[in-house]
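Notes to self, Pyrroline-5-carboxylate reductase:
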Amino acid sequence: MAQQLIGFIGAGNMATSLAGGMVAKGIRPARIWMSDPSQDRLDEVAQLHRVHVTTDNRDVLNRVDVLVLAVKPQMMQQVCEDLRDLIADRQPLVISIAAGITVANLKTWLGETPVVRCMPNTPSLVQAGATGLFAADGVSDEQKTMAKDILGSVGLTFWFEEEKELDAVTAVSGSGPAYFFLLMESLIEAAKAQGLDAATARQMVLQTAWGSAQLAITSEVGPDVLRKQVTSPGGTTAAALNVFEEAGFREHVQAAVAAARERSEELAG
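result:
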């Protein structure tokens, strides 16, 4: 990432995870600046990651080459418009990680500057994220690499050629953790209904989920093959999966993801 300075507007969980991920990958904390209205939050971040902190957004922008916008979507317009004159002067690479804020929105509020829009997910908080990225016109290959390096510090990154594809990313990986959490929650309740105590049920379900993900990630075959390997004809797993199939499990997953994408499109509009 050469020696560019990186700034964050907003010091929430995702921003601090990105900063921490970069530091863990060898980026010197002195190259990272972060602003937030909460001095207590900034003190916590400074102690944790040793990065520069300030309550002044303009101070950050005046110092950096790459600006990561990590504020709540409802605050984004005001934050951007307050920085518009400095953006015109400095022309930093702007990376937005705010859900539902389009490139058109950002350019309207910021003026012309290179923009990359990203859709990270909550596993990024533990460096296990999956992030979709879209680069607006005018973003150089070097700037794309910088964006990939920043978001790649907390997991895998995927570039998309069309911005509208981020709506599908939102529906799959952005909302996806909630789908898995719902399955875990349901399986824990089912285990308790079968007589397991709550603590044991929770630990067994979470370990099974973690182990299954690790097996799928490291295996040379796909989840369909792994599922068949666990499922003996006429066995216990087959009995359970038959219930899922008869209830239209696959169709429900398709419908759920489609509904999430439709809502993402509505919010972006």
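- The domain at 176-268 is CATH 1.10.3730.10 (ProC C-terminal domain-like fold).
- The two ends are 34 Å apart (CA to CA).
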